[in-house]
Design goal:
With 471 residues, the protein is α/β, with parallel strands linked by helices. The chain has helices at residues 37-56, 59-75, 77-88, 92-115, 155-166, 180-191, 208-216, 229-238, 262-274, 294-306, 326-341, 370-373, 389-397, 412-421, 455-461, and strands at residues 5-7, 10-12, 17-21, 28-33, 119-120, 133-140, 143-147, 170-174, 201-203, 222-226, 243-247, 252-256, 284-290, 345-346, 352-353, 356-357, 360-363, 380-386, 401-402, 404-408, 426-429, 445-446, 449-450, 463-470. It has 2 domains: 5-248 and 448-470, Aldehyde Dehydrogenase, Chain A, domain 1 (3-Layer(aba) Sandwich); 252-437, Aldehyde Dehydrogenase, Chain A, domain 2 (3-Layer(aba) Sandwich), CATH 3.40.309.10. It has 15 helices and 24 strands. The strands form 7 sheets. Strands 14-17-18-13-12-20-21 form a 7-stranded mixed β-sheet, sandwiched between helices. It is globular.
């Protein structure tokens, strides 16, 4: 099936298409029209007009719109899940989970917006003030540009579309080139809903040319981007005076204390390191283990990793499928080989089958190796021996990234220290740093980005505060 452009509610196609090949089989599984800067500009102009109507719409209509989409998405769950698996190789069980999470994200956005409000201000609180009626309200920002990645091609789109639309904005979506059909089918549910605001959502496809046209235009008020640090840097430098929300890369780490439940820690770390083939911005990459329990924990990690089912993403019991493309496989191979050449060891056989890169647990790594200091985005995790939490903390914080960290411990004083001393947007205790609840604020510090996602927090990013005084 072909994806199509949505210029508002008007569905169009073009003569030139790009093919999307399955990461697992290599077969062509979808096609998308090749868009250019003019397509981006046209979509923005339509959104600019639609934003005025969206702002006038009632909250009741917008909430009904989202809940209608959530209902239809549940009806289409199996088809959408298979489309995700076709386009990005995600194991079908996890694709189904992603659809469920997207439904929750949409529902949460509607429920959150119903209860969001301004507040009154005490204007006579200071000597220079005086009594007046003063309050503030939140209004739609206008046009939102949403740019999304391949690793969660449905739920991360939901995290942008649902808050933006329920707040009364118009949106131009540029989905990842790796999953155009997933985005098209999802957008179609919004656009064809009986509650839809006409032309409030447009969809265009492409890479740098289209993205540049979207972010440099004076029409958008908000740019919401999830992706790499280099692209985030380009957006920051070229967006101009806009609200920019960036959810960028990570180098997630955890510390295993000697007081921790090691069976729990190993089982959670396996999931955190290898779910979605390590293609998660909060994928667990660095495990700092107290030296007293290092050998025991390393053995447990190796044993648990061997139990994972790796292979076809279409089997219900598969935990790990392929990487997104051949370049990702070659990069992972190169980084592992580089570490081995520099003295690191692998607890398991380094193995690939096509684009399936088997889980890799590395030891004897050093702080300078790429697999430790840079974002790997592959199923590779490193075990590093440390004497205490202070050493682990310094190593964890000594990174340009700061998205999420975790600590496994049964020592309450260490829990308090971890919360206060680790530099990251999120701290998780006794679970993997890859844990994300869609309702929570989510985002990082340092090069991991600015702004926060999660329905309530995204709505705040995509609205403006208007202050009122009545004398």
């Amino acid at each position: 099936m072909d994806a199509k452009i949505y210029f508002g509610s008007n569905e169009q196609t073009k003569e030139e298409f790009s093919n999307r090949h399955s990461p697992f089989s290599g077969e062509v599984i979808s096609r998308a029209p090749v868009c250019d800067a003019n397509d981006a500009k046209k979509a923005l102009q339509i959104a600019q007009i639609a934003a005025k109507e969206a702002k006038k719409s009632t909250l009741s209509q917008r909430c009904s719109w989202l809940l209608d989409v959530a209902h239809k998405l549940r009806e289409e769950k199996e088809d959408i899940a298979k489309t995700i698996t076709d386009e990005v190789g995600k194991p079908i069980t996890f694709s189904r989970i992603e659809v469920e999470r997207a439904i929750e994200t949409i529902t949460l956005s509607a429920e959150t917006m119903r209860t969001m409000h301004g507040e009154t201000i005490n204007t006579d609180a200071m000597p220079s003030g005086r009594k007046a009626i003063s309050y503030f309200v939140r209004e739609a920002a206008g046009v939102v540009v949403a740019i999304t990645p391949f690793n969660f091609p449905l739920n991360l789109v939901a995290h942008k579309l649902a808050p933006a639309l329920v707040a009364g904005n118009a949106v131009v979506l540029k989905p990842t080139p790796e999953a155009p059909l997933t985005a098209y089918k999802f957008a179609k549910l919004f656009i064809e809903s009986k509650y839809a605001i006409k032309d409030a959502l447009s969809v265009v496809y492409g890479d740098a040319e289209v993205g540049s046209a979207l972010i440099t235009s004076e029409i958008p008020r908000v740019v919401s981007f999830t992706g790499s640090v280099p692209v985030g840097n380009i957006i920051t430098k070229n967006a101009g005076i806009k609200k920019v929300s960036l959810e960028l890369g990570g180098n997630a780490a955890t510390y295993i204390d000697k007081s921790a439940d090691l069976d729990l820690a190993a089982s959670k770390c396996i999931i955190g390191a290898f779910v979605n083939s390590g293609q998660v911005c909060i994928s667990l990459q660095r495990i700092y283990v107290n030296s007293d329990i290092y050998d025991i924990f390393a053995k447990k990690m190796a044993e648990e990793t061997k139990k994972l089912v790796v292979g076809s993403p279409y089997h219900d019991d598969t935990f790990m499928g392929p990487l997104i493309d051949e370049d990702a496989v070659l990069r992972a191979k190169k980084w592992v080989q580089s570490a081995l050449d520099e003295g690191a060891k692998s607890l398991l056989e380094v193995k690939t089958e096509g684009r399936v890169f088997y889980p890799c647990v590395m030891t004897d790594v050093t702080d300078e190796m790429k697999i430790v200091c840079e974002e790997v985005f592959a199923p590779i995790v490193s075990l590093i021996k440390v004497d205490d939490f202070s050493t682990a903390r310094d190593k964890m914080n000594n990174s340009p990234y700061g998205l999420q960290f975790s600590v496994f411990t049964n020592d309450l004083s260490l829990v308090k220290r971890a919360i206060n001393e680790l530099d990251a947007g999120g701290i998780v205790i006794n679970d993997m740093p890859t844990l994300r609840f869609d309702i929570q604020p989510y985002g990082g510090v340092k090069l991991s980005g600015v702004g926060r996602e999660g329905p309530r927090f995204a709505i705040e990013e995509m609205t403006e505060i208007k202050s009122i005084v009545i004398n």
